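ok so i was messing around last nite and threw this chain in just to see what happens. nothing serious, just curious
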Amino acid sequence: MIDYSDLIQPDKGQDARAIHLVDKKSYDAWLTGRSARERAALAAAAYKPDAYAHAILPGDDAESWSVVTTVADVENLSAWCLAKLGQVLPEGRYRIEGRQPGKALFGWMSGQYRFDSYRTREEARGPRVLLTADVGAIAPMVAEARATALVRDLVNTPAADMGPAALEKEAARIAKAHGATLAVTKGEALEQGYPMIHAVGRAAAKHHAPRLIEIVWGKEDHPRVALVGKGIAFDSGGLDIKPAAGMRLMKKDMGGAAHVLALAELVMATGLPIRLHCLVAAAENAISSDAFRPGDVLKSRKGLTVEIGNTDAEGRLVLGDALAKAGEDKPELIVDFATLTGAARVALGPDLPALYANDDALAADLIAGGTDRDDPVWRMPLWDGYADLLETDIADLGNAGSSAFAGSITAALFLKRFVPDDTRWAHFDTFAWRPTAKPGRPKGGAALGLRAAWAMLQARYDRRGRG
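result:
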């Protein structure tokens, strides 16, 4: 397992290979200042200042080579501009020539992520270390890299090894490491107190029994913030069973839980001055004689009754109970993460989490946080005009819209019914998966919206050092 603190070191003038950054505007001027030998090497490599392109520049001897790479803007480095170099360069120490890496530190570390828990042969490769004179940036960037890796690890782990009990174990590790309180509700207490979580998970095997997992941390007089995550460890679709192709990636349906556990650990590890309440609604949507059925009417913790129109719309059910619990403690802010709808992916593709919020300032802060961290999110309309699509003849609301239209919006409107009207709330409908690799972002589990939410929390609550 990678220790991300080994990948970034304070620059104390130690020996390191130079990394030259160029962009399309500056390349020609930079090239004229290089030696004839270097220009010949670049010509032989057919180097062009294209995105993520890099080349080795020969030095005076075999060990004194350096690197040139193309970035979008040398004056405004993105989080991902050094990610490919972090992946492909030989082990050793490196230093950017003439500037500091800034938030590119994150991509450098992220590019070295590996998920090899199930490989019988590990890739023997040492770390690529980047030096920076901005010592104060190291710990925050390492913390974000670790949080991102945690999301990836949890989502990448097969469902057989990442059921509700495994999510509880991870929550227990986090709580113990940071002196937090852990509470787990399951069995009869779950059935009585959180009936929708129980109904969704009751068909699963006993060792994958459903539960509500809660972590509480921080001083009681600090602002109370709730983080709520969908932890469907595997989603067969229930009796409305998914086709094989739709089931293939359903180990990732606990991606919302992975996001809030990682975000909670960021909060605790950095000592953010809030009263944190992290809730994970963990269940497996399985098939057995005890599975909940289309047409059933479920009671919820809030008291609302829900008619089941589709057992494959189970994530909103478990979140409904968890959101109701979060609201009972009167937080000033609730943020939830869920791999909730395919409709969000149809609208926005795999890279952009759909963001819903009942407060414009909160939405703006989340969008700004995503821009700052190069973790973009896209606000979608929480439009009450579609609320009638959740109406049903025999219950307070249905769990599946009566139309194929606006699927992500109606799912968000369902969740809104379980959030107190006077509480600021944001909902991320995130994919938690990357179908194709990009530099620093491997195929597989992905943290999408995590750092946007973290930036928002820091901007709102961390007043330390602001005078």
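not much to say yet. The domain at 143-461 is CATH 3.40.630.10 (Aminopeptidase).
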